From TrEMBL, chain A:
Main location as per UniProt: membrane
Molecular functions per Gene Ontology: branched-chain amino acid transmembrane transporter activity
Keywords: Cell membrane, Membrane, Transmembrane, Transmembrane helix
Organism whose genome encodes this protein: Rhodopseudomonas palustris
Subcellular location: Cell membrane
Bilayer-crossing regions: 41-64, 71-89, 109-135, 147-165, 185-212, 242-263, 283-307, 319-340
Entry's Gene Ontology cellular component terms: plasma membrane
Protein name: Amino acid ABC transporter permease
Pfam families: BPD_transp_2 (PF02653)
Length: 364, 537
């Protein structure tokens, strides 16, 4: 609750995020400032931060750990990739390589209309809502929770990955989709567009942060935290937690899909690796390292881990997995609430971890 | 008595000499034909082939080099018979004594048609006389195409003699195929009976080819025989397919069970999701490999038994890793199962990369010991393979031992008590901490054994563990946390469903359907098939 009542850290973070956006905006219009390469990295970190926020919403504030958020991220990514390819081929008049490879000369029916961006946006939202809604409804109704829910979501994303590895589904198979050339009519490779996409992603992050903040400050947010802390009591008091959980779950899935839509144009490729169980686990790692149940924690965790990965997987590729695993163990043992504990300037060693009593209880 | 002996000796001598005289005459006759005109050369080729089928062992050995020599023009005919040129030496064909050909001499030249005859003869002789399996197999391969024109006795005799089982089966198959197309309907019917005795898809192809044969319409007895054969083979194949599906399902289930049983112990006891379980399996496989390599260096005669020698090693090493993991990391996280999940994921990441850095990413090579090689063909296309049987037996033994530990030992009693109610178990004096540690060791050791059992079947590399994690979690969730029975039943169910669906729609569909079924099932029983009664909430 403390994180909710004290505004200072949140405003500081928001100021940083907006400052980055402004900086990117400046370097877009002036010849000075950040290079396109760095801007692209920042844009990707922002997309990951949005994704971490989505998971923090359900895990940190509702107590439901999903190890399958990569699924919704992937839906967003795939739909935006479809949009970009369709858009490109309306300019060039050719179907993408992977379809020529399959011997198809026209798009499958489910690609219809995706060249029109608002429709693609709606399409991604509809697919995400459908899948998250159905899955959430059956799971929450039978009160599958805790580790069971985590495992089943992981199996879900794993199955989705297996499906996407097939070449005959019309989504590029194991090579995925790449070769995007045009975004809203502009060349996607030009540095101006790269920086604009990064600035857009950072702005979306700021908006998502503010939106989540407002949601959590509302009565609805109180109910979310009450559900996390003692769902049985809340039900006994006459609240319908099923609908509440379902609503937050679907909202979180939508935010994750949005993150995917930001991410894919910036990396220029989408493939089934997006749906690998490891990525979904990593999202939980970002949130846990940053601080579960804190919006700031999710953002810091995502940016920190990805920046480290960005730097180390180039500088010392063999070392990166060891550092990541060490970081996870350190945080889990020493900072039960993630790196936001650092703000309290008191290290709690494993034996005395109770001193930093976990603010966000685990649901079993 | 002595007179009798003398008589017998005389008789035997007489017989032997008369036989050799006959053979000598035959050989001289053959030699005459070899040195004769085109027509008699053709006769000679046919005689050579028939020698391969029913000549004595001596005759065959004598004839074997001749066919080759004629093809290569290494046979020289002269006034006093013929000489065989082999390398530096020249031997008289009849007497086998070294001598030079007397002038004038000539080498018989084969016409195109005769050349085919001699090639057949050479292969037929090689089939009976070649000392190595490869030579005989090559000869069989040559003969296969003209099997119908060859004497049937040739393949039967060769098969009877053959020491290599696989080649022998091939010879019998060729003989049967030849008999099927013979001119004599009775022989064909007999061959049909023989073929339908071993019903498999190859037999079905052979027999159903006869449905278009003119004799099928003309000869009612033959028609009936073909129809009977088709029915019998069809039934055999169906039975074989059912058995094969069951057997494959059982072996897949035993692999799933092996992967999941350790997980079930850990998950059930502590509610700790051990995402490093797959990596413990991987380490079990690597330890098995190390044992194999150690034996190769220090005790090569025991190499074949490495799978058995590695059992205690794999168990102890992975159990030790598990205990260390519990003592260092997981005991701080019992109240926070979701964090223990992330911590064990970190461990799995660490182990994967440690193994990758130490051993590299390539697949390990395992010796296949004799007790996991090959199999017994049962019926249809069902082969009872020993490597799958090894996995099944291993799983059954592991199941029995785990059950014994959990039900019959004081440790098992304590583990069950802690599973049901940790706090209460502590109150009545059970050393909860030590039980946790030992149970974690047990669960990890079982994972190591799974790795051992998998090493003759799967490819072993640093990534292998990840393939099992999700499958084995599905087993545990479906079976109900921490119940051995549940794990067995769920493994059997998932294994069979997978094997049933895979041939129809593929592996992906099987995974999707299994997952959907589990989700649907959890609607009905959120805690799985078998629930341990206890206060877990």
């Amino acid at each position: 609750m403390k994180a909710l009542t004290s505004d200072r850290p949140f405003l500081a973070l928001l100021a940083v995020v907006l400052a980055v956006a402004v900086l990117l905006g400046i370097s877009m219009v002036s010849p000075f400032g950040i290079s396109a390469y760095l801007a692209n990295a920042i844009g990707q970190f922002a997309a990951f931060a949005v994704l971490a926020l989505a998971l923090d919403l359900v895990w940190g504030y509702l107590g439901i750990l999903s190890l399958g958020h990569g699924l919704f991220f992937g839906i967003g990514g795939y739909v935006v990739a479809m949009h970009l390819l369709k858009h490109s081929s309306e300019v060039t008049g050719k179907v993408p390589d992977f379809m020529q490879f399959m011997g198809w000369s026209t798009y499958p029916f489910y690609w219809a209309g995706l060249g029109f961006f608002p429709y693609a946006l709606l399409f991604a939202a509809a697919v995400t809502l459908l899948i998250s809604g159905v899955f959430g409804y059956v799971s929450f109704r039978s009160r599958v929770g805790g580790v069971y829910f985590a495992i089943i979501t992981q199996a879900l994303v794993y199955v989705a990955m297996l499906l996407m590895f097939r070449n005959d589904t019309g989504f590029g198979g194991n090579n995925g989709m790449t070769g995007f050339s045009v975004l809203f009519g502009w060349s996607i490779g030009s540095s101006g567009v790269v920086i604009a996409m990064a600035a857009g992603s950072v702005l979306v992050l700021a908006v998502t942060l503010l939106g989540c903040r407002m949601l959590l400050g509302s009565r609805f947010g109180m109910l979310m935290i009450a559900t996390r802390d003692d769902e049985v009591r809340l039900r006994t008091l006459g609240y319908e937690t099923l609908r509440l959980k379902l609503a937050v779950w679907c909202l979180s899935a939508l935010i994750a899909a949005l993150a995917g839509m930001l991410y894919v144009p910036q990396v220029g490729i989408v493939n089934p690796r997006l749906l690998a169980p490891e990525l979904s686990l990593e999202i939980a790692v970002w949130v846990a390292i940053g601080g579960r149940g804190h919006l700031i924690g999710a953002v810091i965790g995502a940016v920190l881990v990805n920046a480290l990965k960005f730097w180390l997987s180039a500088a010392a590729p063999d070392l990166w997995p060891f550092i990541l695993s060490g970081l996870i163990v350190l945080v889990v043992l020493v900072f039960p609430n993630g790196l936001v504990d650092l703000a309290k300037w008191k290290l709690a060693w494993p034996m005395g971890a109770k001193r930093l009593a976990s603010e966000t209880p685990e649901l079993r | 008595m002595r007179r009798f002996c003398v008589a017998v000796t005389l008789l035997v001598t007489a017989c032997a000499s008369s036989q050799s005289i006959a053979a000598g005459a035959q050989r001289a006759d053959l030699l005459g034909k070899l040195c004769g005109d085109t027509a008699s050369l053709g006769d000679a080729g046919r005689i050579l082939t028939s020698l391969a089928a029913d000549g004595s062992r001596d005759d065959r050995l004598w004839a074997a080099p001749i066919a080759r020599a004629v093809i290569d023009r290494k046979l020289r005919c002269d006034a006093s018979g013929a000489v065989l040129v082999s390398g530096e030496k020249t031997l008289d064909v009849l007497t086998q004594a070294p001598r030079m050909p007397t002038e004038p001499s000539r080498s018989p030249l084969l016409s195109l048609k005769n050349r085919g005859l001699f090639e057949t003869a050479e292969a037929a002789l090689a089939l009976r006389t070649a000392p190595d399996v490869a030579g005989r197999a090559a000869a069989l391969h040559t003969l296969e195409r003209r099997a119908a024109s060859l004497p049937e006795k040739l393949f039967e005799a060769a098969a009877e003699q053959e020491s290599d089982a696989e080649l022998k089966a091939q010879m019998i198959a060729v003989a049967q195929a030849a008999a099927l197309n013979s001119a004599d309907p009775l022989k064909r019917i007999a061959a049909l009976k023989q073929i339908s005795a071993t019903p498999d898809r190859r037999a079905l192809t052979k027999v159903s080819a006869l449905l278009g044969d003119p004799a099928y319409a003309a000869n009612p007895a033959f028609k009936r025989a073909v129809d009977d054969a088709v029915t019998t083979i069809g039934r055999g194949i169906a039975i074989g397919d059912v058995l094969a599906t069951l057997y494959n399902g059982l072996s897949f289930a035993s692999i799933l069970f092996m992967a999941a049983i350790g997980l079930a112990v850990i998950f059930g006891l502590m509610g700790v999701i051990n995402l490093a379980q797959g990596e413990l399996i991987m380490i079990g496989a690597y330890v098995t490999w190390l044992v194999q390599e150690g034996l190769r260096h220090f005790a090569p005669m025991l190499l074949d038994y490495y799978l058995i020698i590695a059992i205690p090693v794999a168990f102890l090493v992975t159990a030790a890793i598990g205990i260390a993991l519990e003592a260092i990391l997981l005991r701080h996280l019992y109240r926070r199962p979701l964090m223990s999940l992330l911590a064990t994921w970190a461990v799995s990441l660490f182990l994967i990369n440690l193994v990758r850095v130490t051993f590299g990413t390539q697949n390990l090579n395992f010796v296949t010991p004799f007790y996991v090689t090959g199999g017994v063909p049962v019926i249809g296309d069902f082969i009872f393979t020993w490597n799958r049987m090894f996995a099944i037996v291993f799983a059954v033994v592991t199941l029995a031992l785990t059950w014994g530990v959990m039900r019959l030992t004081p440790l098992g009693l304590n583990i069950r008590a802690v599973m049901q109610n940790r706090t209460m178990a502590g109150c009545i004096g059970i050393p909860v901490r030590r039980v946790d540690m030992l149970a974690f060791g047990l669960g990890s050791g079982l994972a190591g054994l799974a790795g051992l059992a998998l090493s003759p079947i799967y490819s072993v590399n640093p990534q292998m563990g990840q393939n099992f994690v999700i499958d084995s979690f599905m087993v545990v969730v479906l079976g109900g946390v921490g119940t051995i029975v549940g794990t067995v039943v769920a493994a059997l169910g998932i294994g069979q469903i997978n094997v049933l669906i895979e041939p129809l729609w593929g592996a992906v569909a099987a995974k999707v359907i299994v997952l959907l079924m589990i989700i649907a099932f959890l609607q009905w029983r959120p805690e799985g098939l078998f629930v341990i009664k206890g206060r877990r909430k």
